[in-house]
């Protein structure tokens, strides 16, 4: 007989991100983050390759990265509004964790499966933070897709890239949930 876990199921049926712009201090301490990171690293991982790693960005690092985004966005010739959006995402944050995809060279596990595993880390990190009572959000942005920014600002090695920048903090208000998928419309039942 299956042994249900109603509390876990209730969490999954009601969980939702909190927009990064409404997250503020206090943020989890390093000690409080440890179980959250441990939960996030407990994901399906074909071949046990661990094709991901974490970079925990505390306030001073986010301020430094916001300044780098300003110069980098201008150097890239991006639309100023887009630059500012990326800059403020970092400048307003008190804590964010970059989940870095670290591709492993192996013939047994295609890279796409390693990338999917990195996505699982991102979602589990959001969920573990939410389950611990924090607000959390999975963002990226033009800076996280820019190799030069990631090399200079985050010290990423060749081939590494940011799968998600997970913002974590205290929510300052509770915005309404968004409409959720119609399960009947996206599900096909096959019995023959
Ligand atoms: C890979 C990925 C990247 C994302 N990047 C952004 C982003 O840069 N900016 C943004 O506003 N939302 C971004 N989102 C969407 C947010 O995470 C969004 O708030 C999320 O869909 C909320 O879903 P939930 O409430 O079910 O957790 C991204 C989502 C994913 C999966």
TrEMBL record:
Keyword RNA-binding belongs to the record: no
Record key words, sorted: Flavoprotein, FMN, NAD, NADP, Oxidoreductase
CDD domains: YdjA-like (cd02135)
EC number(s) recorded for this UniProt protein: 1.-.-.-
Gene3D superfamilies: NADH Oxidase (3.40.109.10)
Cofactor(s) required, per the database record: FMN
Boundaries of every Nitroreductase domain copy: 25-169
InterPro entries per the UniProt record, alphabetical: NAD(P)H_nitroreductase, Nitroreductase, Nitroreductase-like, YdjA-like
One matching Pfam family: Nitroreductase
Family, per entry: Belongs to the nitroreductase family.
Stated name of the protein: Putative NAD(P)H nitroreductase
